[in-house]
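Q: Sequence in, structure out?
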Amino acid sequence: MTLHLIKLAVGVRDTAHLAEIQSCLVKESLDRGGDGKLVHYTRNFPRRAAEVLDGGALFRVIRGLVQVRQRILAIERGIRRDGTPACALVLDTHFVRTRPKAMRPFQGWRYLDAKDAPPDLGQGSVVEDMPLELAAELEELGLL
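A: Exactly. Output:
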């Protein structure tokens, strides 16, 4: 059964800013002679990694709203730049925008059951042209 992860994107303004940050990370990896994988480091290794790797994604909360997901390609043991051990989530560089869903702040990452994950936005979706806060409020009211 597929299981997702959800994590706050602290300091990120919007999806374009997240894409810019991640592009810089890939470029830095290549400049250092790395493989150019997009890796997000976290402190804790998921105990349910097998379920996450069965089609799971990392959903990102940006400014209080779940807005985007990226497929998790691998979960590896890694080391941060400061030398501390970490969990390395290898992500697909492709973003999939999701229907905005309000989310309260939390620390670290959380598991997200597939049934609770916000649906993807379809091409030409009316929500795509709507301000994010309005779309999230309509979603919360059950009107979307």
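The chain has a mean pLDDT of 88.
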